[in-house]
Amino acid sequence: MFINIDKENKFINFFLIFFICLTPFSLPFSIFISDLSLVISSIIFLLLLNKDNFKRFFFNRLTIIFICWYVYLLINSLLSENIFLSLESSLFYFRFFIYSLSIWYCLENINNFLKYFFFTLLLSFSIVLFDSYFQYIVGFNLLGFEYNNQWNRLSSFFNEEYILGSYLSRILPIIIALFFNKNIQSNNKIFYSFILIILSTVIILFSGERSALINLLMFFVLFIFIIDINLKKLFTYFTSFIIIIIIFINFNADIRKRMVNFSFQQLNEGGSLKIFSIQHQLIYETSYKIFLDNKIRGIGPKNFRVVCKNYQSKNDLDKSEDGCSTSPHNIYLQLLVETGIIGFMFIFILF
């Protein structure tokens, strides 16, 4: 049953915008609130649809592709070794797609939605940045989480989950992309973007996440070549970025030890080249063994942690590591192992 509500209804539109924006805003502070707001915004979106809009949003090529992908994940979960564990990630997976459709709806029907989304995301991102610098200077963050932990890595609101760098390196490109949208009015967008990139880079260095730094470097290179800027400014921004990274690496022993020394040590551990580290390589070897026995449809979502126990990989360089973990630590390997060639092709064809 559909509820016919005029799209100009400010009351219902306000709540839809509020919960859509609350989802990414609350991500660093509470996964529960973020997921709850995502579900609520999706429900409001479904209630707003009339029959014509329903056909528009649900009878199109992208929706059909997603439904095929979702059904495939469900079937894979039901055929997996641990069905209930697999269904934890696949059963309600559709909520992310409904959420994306609700954003599409708002972009078409609600004035200034993009501005609200941009500024709430920027506000959340800025709070995390401020908290990270506060944690570094004072020794603990706004919630009392200490910086001087056993790993000596910044974590901000994520506390013992060291994903601060991953969060910054993934959210920053979205913010900057939105910033350059024609609906966001501002002068000196390139300069402000550069400042955000620099502030984020420093925190990522102190977070100790090497993959996050690589992600940001790739984004920055793409950014400076895509934007409309003269060669003089291009050279200035690029060299400034590189100089800042070099300064922090050279003048901070902890950053240099983890980002440079430790990385080279892990890559060349045992006198031969490794994929990131011996620990990563053992997990990748285990993943490859599992894939060889489950090429077509994989082992089912979230089942790597269960099946890897039967495919353990060993190495004398690290006898404590058996190549078994919660995941393969690589998105594409995880797709191949848990969803097989069929599942991998869904994503590969979209790319």
Tell me the Rg in angstroms. Answer: 23 Å
Distance between the termini: 36 Å
Could you give the count of β-strands?
Answer: 0
User: What string, H for helix and E for strand, traces the elements in order?
Assistant: HHHHHHHHHHHHHHH
Average pLDDT, rounded to a whole number, is 87
Poorly predicted regions are 1-5
Q: Enumerate how many helices there are, as a single number.
A: 15
Question: What would the principal axes of the Cα set say about the shape?
Answer: globular
Structural class: mainly alpha
DSSP helix fraction: 55-70%
Explain what the structure shows.
There is one protein chain. With 351 residues, the protein is an all-alpha fold. It has helices spanning 10-25, 31-48, 51-58, 61-78, 83-90, 94-109, 113-138, 164-179, 189-207, 210-226, 231-251, 253-267, 278-293, 304-307, 331-350. The protein starts with 9 loop residues before the first helix and ends with a helix.
